[in-house]
Write a structure and sequence with these properties.
Largest sheet: 8 strands, antiparallel
Structural class: alpha+beta
Helix content: 40-55%
Radius of gyration: 27 Å
Oligomer: single chain
Distance between the termini: 22 Å
Strand content: 5-15%
Shape: elongated
Number of helices: 19
Length: 629
């Protein structure tokens, strides 16, 4: 197993662990039978079985008598204890889930669907229907409420041996904040919210008592949904497995949905809803000016493709806010220098990367719209970056206004130099001033030859902003040391790329437990490297990179919120188009949307206009990655 689970990876036989539980909770009308959870033996569901159970659930939800056929579907009617969840999505609200345990899958599905009718959805409004069948149960384990729980509940059901017993889909637990987030802990507040949603009694429940010990049974699931037209789709970790093919049309859909999320996220003052937790329907109060600028840059990338006037208006507000936090040097330095920098209010700290990203935001606005009203401000940002460069090309990363902070030490941030150099090259493309190219080239040379020159390839940081910058400098002033460094960084990324995994939704990610933004940043870097490989007329490398970018983009689109994977949120519409932190944390931060969208836009261009830059072959690209890896 590549990820932590609630239970041990080697699941012991259930024969020695008999757990008798009365599942009176969450069951349909009438008293539920006494069920031996340990008797839930492994069962495989065929596509025909899934379609049959989904049709039964839909009929019950619509108030019809389900059409059953024990002869043709003997396995679904044979005596084999089974637990089933039936979930009905609701427009603008959290889905309603019914649960039942019965002597066979068909009866459990009917009972669970009856339980879900408490949603009182009119028959003609029953749309998608989701069914999760417990196909196997594991041994009972003990857990102490309130303690850190390193768990992956996203694939499973969790059955609590309480009185009365409680059972939830793992995705329900994550998407109500009952477990997960940054702390991987049970949240008593989240558990209470989930139990109330199910209509369960919470008074005296040991699940809601800190330090109480509860017993768990993990339920392995077969999950699927039925569309209104009868089409049945397999679910994996709460999302469909298909429909993420990285074709231009599909990429544009994801890009446009991200644009819709971001334009909703900009308020009247030009600030973003920086971090939104859809599990709790709450926004964080923290803020990050660099990510504000970077996200505005990606919004202009979106606008360049779809020309949505609402995005442009949101961009103008966001740029206006950046202007309000732009400051010149302190009184002493102002005697010699004339620059401006994005400066944190109150702290009075200007970061190198802030000006780089501000240049990207203002520069792309200028390039796309032709409006040069911000040119003086951009050049002032560029002078700050030039001011921060040392004689050897290394960069000072922070400027402090307060006298008491002047000698403050700080931890260097990997990405700041690349952000600054990429920003300078964006301005250079507008005003043609060779000073900006000189600063960027000198800074990249320092990184390639001095800072990282002696590092082995496997120790190189995966710096996507640097590869963006190298690509832009390479267009005008190619140098072997820079492209060689970019090649080494790319190889370091390839070494961590997931080409195959037991979890199909891990493919296209990086590291053992892939998360959205780290994947997106590396796919952005690959997009820049792809352009350099085209210019070098290197068909093997372009094919290899294109294959990786396609797989990575598929991974990213799986992590975007759609009407399929938002059904358990209280406010599903608010999350639509955003990107989750990862499969284990539902939070959306604006830079997650930024980087994922920029990565997809890079692939879109690679499949449309960039491929015309050279005669590099297109055929065989999808197969190129595996032999080379």
């Amino acid at each position: 197993m590549t990820i932590a689970r609630i239970f041990a990876p080697n699941r012991p036989s259930l024969g020695a662990a008999l757990l008798f539980v009365v599942f009176a909770l969450g069951c349909a009308q009438g008293e539920a039978p006494v069920v031996d959870i340990a008797s839930i033996e492994k069962i495989e569901l065929t596509d025909t079985d899934k379609a049959y159970l989904a049709a039964i659930a839909r009929a019950v939800l619509k108030g019809e008598t389900p059409s059953t056929d024990a002869g043709a579907h003997a396995k679904m009617h044979g005596k084999s204890t089974r637990g089933v969840f039936v979930t009905v999505p609701r427009e603008g609200k959290a889905a309603v889930t019914g649960l039942a345990f019965r002597e066979n899958a068909a009866e459990a599905t009917i009972a669970a669907a009856k339980d879900a009718t408490r949603a009182k959805i009119p028959a003609d409004r029953v749309g998608r229907v989701r069914v999760d069948v417990i196909v196997k149960a594991d041994e009972k384990k003990t857990y102490e409420v309130g303690k850190k729980w390193k768990a992956d509940v996203t694939l499973d059901a969790v059955l609590f041996d309480t009185k009365p017993p409680v059972a939830f889909l793992g995705q329900e637990m994550r998407d109500t904040g009952a477990i997960g987030g940054h702390k991987d802990k049970f949240s008593i507040e989240g558990l209470r919210r989930l139990m109330n949603r199910r209509g369960l009694a919470t008074d005296g429940s040991p699940l809601l008592q800190k330090d109480a010990k509860v017993n768990l049974v993990r339920g392995e699931l077969a999950s699927f949904l039925q569309e209104p037209d009868g089409t049945v789709k397999t679910l994996y970790r709460g999302n469909v497995l298909d429909g993420f093919e990285p074709a231009p049309e599909r990429l544009l859909t994801a890009i446009n949905e991200a644009g819709n999320y971001l334009k909703r996220a900009v308020d009247d003052k030009g600030k973003f809803d920086y971090n939104y937790d859809p599990a709790r329907d709450k926004s964080a109060t923290s803020y990050n000016l660099l990510r504000h600028a970077g996200t505005t840059f990606s919004m202009m990338q979106i606008y360049e493709l779809n020309k949505d006037p609402e995005i442009l208006e949101a961009v103008k507000r966001a740029l206006g806010y950046l202007q309000t936090v732009s400051m010149g040097p302190d009184a002493n330095d102002a005697k010699k220098h004339d620059w401006k920098a994005i400066t944190q209010p109150g702290i009075l700290e200007a970061k190198l990367g802030g000006c780089g990203l501000a240049l990207l935001a203002f520069g792309n606005y200028t390039r796309v719209t032709g409006d040069k009203s911000h040119l003086d401000l951009m050049q002032a940002y560029a002078r700050f970056i030039e001011f921060m460069q040392k004689p050897d090309g290394d960069m000072v990363q922070r400027y402090y206004h307060k006298p008491e902070d002047k000698n403050k030490t700080y931890q260097p941030v990997l990405y700041y130099p690349g952000e600054a150099f990429f920003g300078l090259m964006t301005l250079h493309a507008i005003d043609g001033n060779p000073r900006w190219l000189d600063v960027a080239a000198k800074g990249i040379d320092f990184i390639a030859d001095v800072r990282d020159g002696a590092k082995p390839t496997e120790k190189l940081e995966h710096d996507h902003w640097l590869l963006y910058a190298i690509n832009e400098v390479d267009k005008l002033r190619p140098a072997a040391n820079r492209t060689a460094h970019a090649d080494r960084v790319m190889q370091a990324m390839f070494d961590k790329f997931i080409l195959e995994d037991e979890h199909p939704d891990f493919v296209g990610g990086f590291y053992k437990k892939p998360k959205t933004t780290p994947v997106a940043c590396r796919i952005e870097a690959m997009g820049a490297q792809y352009q350099m490989s085209l210019r070098r007329n290197d068909p093997a490398m372009t094919a290899r990179i294109l294959s990786a970018v396609k797989l990575g983009s598929t991974f990213l689109m799986r992590n975007q919120y759609t009407d399929v994977n938002t059904i358990f949120f209280e406010n599903p519409a608010r999350a639509m188009g955003g990107y989750q932190t990862g499969y284990w944390n539902p939070e959306i931060q604006i830079d997650y949307v930024q980087h994922s969208t920029s990565a997809l836009i890079g692939l879109f261009h690679a499949l449309t206009d960039w491929k015309n830059m050279t005669n590099a072959p297109a055929k065989g690209a999808d197969e190129a990655l595996k032999p080379a890896a």
